[in-house]
Fold:
Amino acid sequence: MINTRTILSLILLTIAGVGTLIYFLSRKEEPHVSREYTEIQMLSAAIESYKTDHGHSPTDPATTEQLKPNTSFDPVAYIPSSAFLCRSLSGDNKAAETPDAPKPKRYCVFPPGMLKKSDSGLTYIVDRSGNSLGYSTFKSAHPNSPDGNNPTFDLWSTGGGTSAEDKSKWYQNW
Structure:
């Protein structure tokens, strides 16, 4: 015999399930959001793996330590940092190779369509809109600065936006 409490619980669970289903079906961009979020999480995990091996996130004084995620909104400006991250995670860091050095470790295999080549020949990581991903270690290099968000690295996609007004579209790790 089913009591009133069980029936009420089943009704509430059904309402919650239907409400959740309606919410996700009404979000037209859900596959887009899931892909962007998954890519940021995949790259964050690869960066953390790199950090475990090297004691720090991939960082470069000329690129990643200069990019300010809170004030730089043009994805074209992200290309040098994104290219550095791509080389670091793919194991394609030819500048660090010497004849007797071990082959660099690969931390990430990039899916088709996630890499693009710039006019200057840099291979960099892009989001689904074709814009460069942002990657910054500014806060790590300048811990007392108000710029930057995470103490180790910031990683973001502009979601197709190219200005400060588009920041609400961003997918980021902060």
Observations:
- The first helix runs from residue 4 to 26.
